[in-house]
Amino acid sequence: MTSPLADNLRRIRERIAAAAERVERNPDDVAILAVTKTFPVARIRDAMALGLRTFGENRVQEAIPKIEEIGTSDASWHLIGHLQSNKARFIEERFTMVQSIDSVAIAQTLGRRLKTQLEILIEVNVGEEPQKTGALPQDLPAIAEAIGGISTLQLRGLMTVAPMVSDVEEARPIFQRLRRLRDEASQRLAMPLPVLSMGMSDDYVVAVEEGATMLRLGRALFGPR
Q: What's the CATH fold of domain 4-222?
């Protein structure tokens, strides 16, 4: 008998494969980031037993004890929540990627704290929702240019959180715009930006159809929190 987690992962992979096939993409180009906020270490180990190795946490202070217990040799940790400047000192040697850079100031603060290179994404508030963090689309060029001057930060792409909608099709324009913003930034910087972190438990199928390379999945994998 398989576990609920194994069943959920199988269904997710089937849906990713079907969505990728519809738009002639290779499903292997879509990574699953298991979002483990509020879930205990035991659930993370269950996910690792199924082959998942990349985990996302929203808060540095919640992530640290999990990272210290599980380690970083067999698991990769991404910070996907807002990074406060006073938490920047805890990033190095714990996180592989920070997906939530949304200003020149936080990029500079993080860059000063690092001794080695760190992969980052710029979080873009594509829907321009006032209650959300993330850079506004018009501010993206200045942030990307500033990051280019920080030797310890390696810009890999963009991230967004789509608005909560009753019809997932309403999220499609958000994902389409993030992809366009990524393409424009890549051209402007004359460098590849391969990562599009977009799509969560409710809308990840649409995100795959629109070019997502990384899906942030919590509830779809682990069930309700």
A: TIM Barrel (3.20.20)
